[in-house]
Amino acid sequence: MSKLTDQLFKMAGFPPAIDLNRSHNPWTPTPIDNEKVDCFGSPEQIIFLNEIVKDLGGKIFAPKSIDAACNYFVLDATGFESLSDINKLYGFFQGRMKNLRSHGRLIILSKKDQEVENPAARIAQKAIEGFMRSMSKEVGRKGTTVNQLRISKALLADKENYKTYLKSALHFLFSTGSTFITGQQIDLDVPAKRNEDSIPLTQSLKGKTALVTGAAQGIGEAIARCLAKEGAHVVVLDRPADEDKAKAVAEAIDGVVLLQDVSSEDAGKAIGEFVQKNFDGLDILIHNAGITRDKTLKNMTREQWDMVLNINLHALYNITNTLLDANLLNTQSRVVCMSSIMGIGGNFGQTNYGATKAGVIGLVEAFAGKMATKQSTINAIAPGFIQTRMTDKIPFFTREIGKKMASLNQEGLPVDIAETVTFLCSPGAASINGQTIRVCGGSVVGK
């Protein structure tokens, strides 16, 4: 069936998907070891970027011709002030794309356009978004990603913190861990706690205690393994029916098991008591557990509606609130919630699911301020088509078309979500709060 569908999609103009680079090893401090990186900006900006590139193991690339091959690019557009500056996007990238190899990384730095007061400058900054998203679709078939880091005015003015958190973001976006993120904007802002020490880029979760819901299999298992790989001690939480699977995961990562139905009214209290008894609070809380009960609204039972809302949304709110009120989320903690592109773009037969996943986005926005008072962050991940039991239930051709219509021309793997979650849990992601990051391969669904 697979060969037949590949042939049909090829006839329809969809080439075979390229194998994306992924690694299951612990993070390395030099994700671009000996790779050439071509940077663009003012002389001062280029000096600044070159220092970061060297720290990450890259080579400074100063081509005598734009026809010279290179696979890693950083364009600093924070200085774009006029409509004519938009032409620099064409001038820098156009010739260089002719020799672009596979598995490249194109990263554009910009200001947050909402903070720009000058009309011409705001237009120029906003134009970058459309260019970035379009470029991601042009180069995605090569397994190359294009993303935008939007830097707040306050962080740009704080040179020391800017370098620290830009370096951390570039470390992740250059790495294989970001292989399924493309066409996305990530905002960097001044963190609630000023950086006083150097931030580790490897084994950065050593000594941290993490709890992952729905961790017995699928994306949850991948997250638990990835957090443990970077040094965290992980509580593998899942429902009692999956006890054997949960124990197997915990044993593999030297973690512990907590059997708990997250949708029960006392779930927050039970989790809090477990944490209080066994640990000095939580450093990381991952809300991964979720279900679907798909029906058109006219055919959906109240039970199907309630079940999805209780597990996918109410449980997150109740557990997070309970742990915060009990002061069981430590200072500089991280909370990551699982949303979905279906919460952004909607989907036929998923009014319940779409409502909960959009609600999750609202939840992280609503809790961001409260988390900041604890020098902590809360963010969401919006997966696209990821190879799991849940997506296996989607009708075959619907799933295949959804995969092929993405910029990267394929579905993602649980490890793609796990790597992004792990980045958001790291000290280097302290400048990211209240955001939803799509890990969707550039899906056409939503933004």
Note the main attributes of this structure.
single chain, 447 residues, alpha/beta, Rossmann fold, 2 domains, six-stranded parallel beta sheet, 41% helix, globular
Question: What this model shows, in words?
Answer:
The protein is an alpha/beta fold and 447 residues long. The protein has two domains: 17-188, Rossmann fold, CATH 3.40.50.720; 209-439, Rossmann fold, CATH 3.40.50. 41% of the residues lie in helices and 16% in strands. Strands 9-8-7-10-11-12-13 form a seven-stranded parallel β-sheet, sandwiched between helices. The longest helix is centred in the C-terminal third of the chain and has 24 residues, at 302-325. It is globular, with a radius of gyration of 22 Å. The mean pLDDT is 92.
Summed up, what is this model?
Helices cover 41% and strands 16% of the residues. The radius of gyration is 22 Å and the shape is globular.
Query: Helix-strand pattern, N to C?
Result: HEHEEHEHEHHEEHEHEHEHEHHEHHHE
Could you say what the CATH architecture of the largest domain is? 3-Layer(aba) Sandwich
Sheet with the most strands: spatial strand order = 9-8-7-10-11-12-13
Specify the helix fraction band. 40-55%
Beta-strand level of the residues, as a percent range?
Answer: 15-25%
DSSP summary: helix tally: 15
How far from one another are the termini? 32 Å
CATH class of the largest domain: Alpha Beta
Major sheet summary line: 7 strands, parallel
Query: How confident overall, as mean pLDDT?
Result: 92
| Net shape | globular
Structural class: alpha/beta
Low-confidence stretches: none
Q: What would CATH call the homologous superfamily of the largest domain?
A: NAD(P)-binding Rossmann-like Domain
The structural domain count equals 2
